[in-house]
Amino acid sequence: MRDSKGISMISLIVTVICTILLAAMAIGTGSRYIRESRSKDRATFVSVMSNAVAKRHADTVLNSLAYPYLGYYINDSVIFEKIFVPKVSEPIKYENGIWYVLDTATARGLGVKEPEKYIETIDISYPELVKVALVDYATGNVYLIDAYASEMSGLDSVISGPVIGHDHRYVDELNYPNCTEPLKCADCGFILKESLGHKYDADQHPEPASGDEENAHYNRQCIVCGMQGGYEPHDFEYVHLIKNDLWYHKSYCVICEYEKKYGIETEERCTEVIKLSESESERSKNHIRFCRVCGYSVSEGHDIGYRRISESMHEKYCLNELCGHTITREYHVDANNDSKCDLCNSEIVSYSYPQLGIVEMVNANPISEEQKYMAKYGDNISLKIVADKAIRKETLEVIIAGQKVPQDALVTSDNKTWNITFYLNPNVAIPNGNIAFRITCESLSGVELPAPITSPSDGKRVVFDGTAPMIQYIQKVDRVDEKE
Ligand SMILES: [Zn+2]
Ligand SMILES: [Zn+2]
Ligand SMILES: [Zn+2]
Ligand SMILES: [Zn+2]
Ligand SMILES: [Zn+2]
Ligand SMILES: [Zn+2]
Asked: Under a CB-based contact definition with an 8 Å cutoff, are residues 278 and 252 in contact?
């Protein structure tokens, strides 16, 4: 008995729990059922309202009293934007004469049954939110919204009366809307369809800009209306051409391939100039021909010519008149013994005494090109002498700045070309200004120079400055060393 009583207690508890669970499930299902059916009813109500509104719109005659639009007429786009647009989840747009607010009374007027189940009556003295329908008579769209009655106070409560408005007149519906213009009513400007915007082809190849081909290209064009955009200036590059040995260039845009026009042509003659290389060894062989416009350049050998400069010497130079570079100075040569120079064709007079055709003095260790013809105490001066015939060393006397150059400083390998280095000793006074020199000598057969040589063959003098301190010179050398 005890046992069976215990079993019945357990089964009672299980039964109670099951009952509670089943009840809870039933309640859950029930409330969901009620929620679903209510929203289903609400949708039905909206569709009934929508039919009533659309029917009224179909029946109505503009500006007549027959079948007027009912409701609170929203006659102001500002009120519409401010109060009603925020209450609707989808985008809505104001249009004159079609937007109304309906409450129970006006909904009944349109023939809707039992509207009070879903919307309320507008009573200006009632301060709480009321449910109303916002309707668009033109489309039949109905939106159930919550609003304060006071928000309706600014609206025309047209319960009945003529329907205000006009039928919109759309002109040229075939061509509008287009890329930039909307389709709109020719009378009131109501926009039915917004402009479409340009459509661009992603693969648009840049083309010269119409009307400004010479200066710019565009990289976007609307595939509908042809409107061009994305203008930018051409990025020209030159192409060099050689035709019948003459130089030409043309220029094209690397982006759109537009070819620049020179008048009616697409190419023009180069503007040729000639310049010399920075490098001394290169300068002695070649000049550089280049186009000042396109920058094309080639290095070409000098067009060699010779011209007489003295009884003993001629000059080797470039015949090209844009160049004219003097390459070197040298003694006349007469290999065929006709008393004319084989190279410059000038008369050769035979002299028994030596001709010192080249006598050049420079600073032996210049720290720059301009320092070549400047010197201070402590510097070495170098003097180069080139004679047309051999000189007897014992007869060669060289005096620089009043000091006799010792015999062992007279260096030669053939007795014609002499290289002399002379130290400007700080212990011996040297006057400021051009460094004076004096050269006398005799040929191997003992014929003396008719007069001492005291001026350089290239006309360039080395200027001595005894006031420049030696220390400064040393510092300058240091600074140059640091840089390199
Ligand atoms: Zn219109
Ligand atoms: Zn377009
Ligand atoms: Zn271009
Ligand atoms: Zn050129
Ligand atoms: Zn040249
Ligand atoms: Zn000559």
From this structure: no
User: 95 C-alpha to center of ligand 1: Å?
Assistant: 9
Give distance in angstroms: CA of 182 to centre of ligand 2.
13
> Ligand 3 centroid to 229 CA: how many Å?
13
CATH superfamily of 356-483: Immunoglobulins (2.60.40.10)
Are 343 and 331 spatial neighbours (Cβ–Cβ below 8 Å)? no
Question: How far, in Å, is the centroid of ligand 3 from the Cα of 247?
Answer: 25
Report every protein residue that has its C-beta within 5 angstroms of ion ligand 6.
314, 332, 341, 343-344
pLDDT digit string, tens, across residues 465-484: 988 766 544 444 444 444 43
pTM: 0.47
CA 18-22-25 angle, 5° bins: 140
Run of H or E residues at 307: strand 304-308
Q: Ligand 5 centre from 284 Cα, in Å?
A: 9
Q: Which of 76, 69, 72, 71 is CA-nearest to residue 96?
A: 76
Which position has the higher pLDDT, 334 or 436?
436
State phi, psi for 152 to the nearest 5 degrees: -90, -10
pLDDT of residue 27: 58
C-alpha 215 to ligand 3 mean position (Å) = 8
CA 356 from chain center: how many Å? 63
Q: Which ligand is nearest to the CA of 260?
A: 3
Assign 31 a pLDDT band (cuts: 50, 70, 90): low
Question: At a CB cut-off of 8 Å and minimum separation 6, what does 213 contact?
Answer: 258
Q: Could you give the 3-state DSSP secondary structure of residue 272?
A: strand
pLDDT at 4: 44
- Pairing type for strands 326-331 and 313-318 reads antiparallel
Percent share of the chain, pLDDT over 90: 54
Query: What does the pLDDT look like over 379-434, one tens digit per residue?
Result: 999 999 999 889 999 999 999 999 999 999 999 999 999 999 999 999 999 999 99
- For residue 318, report the distance from its CA to the centre of ligand 5, in Å: 4
- Distance (Å, whole) CA 221 – CA 230: 8
- For the stretch 105-126, pLDDT in tens is 889 989 999 999 999 988 888 8
C-alpha–C-alpha distance, residues 136 and 74, integer Å: 10
Q: How far is the CA of 103 from the centre of ligand 1 (A)?
A: 28
* Ligand nearest, relative to CA of residue 293: 4
**Nearest ligand for residue 302 CA:** 5
Per-domain residue ranges of the chain? 2-158, 303-350, 356-483
The Å distance, Cα 213 to ligand 2 centre, comes to 21
pLDDT in tens, 272-328: 999 999 888 899 999 999 999 999 999 999 999 999 998 888 999 999 999 999 999
- Find out whether the peptide bond into 177 is cis, omega within 30 degrees of 0: yes
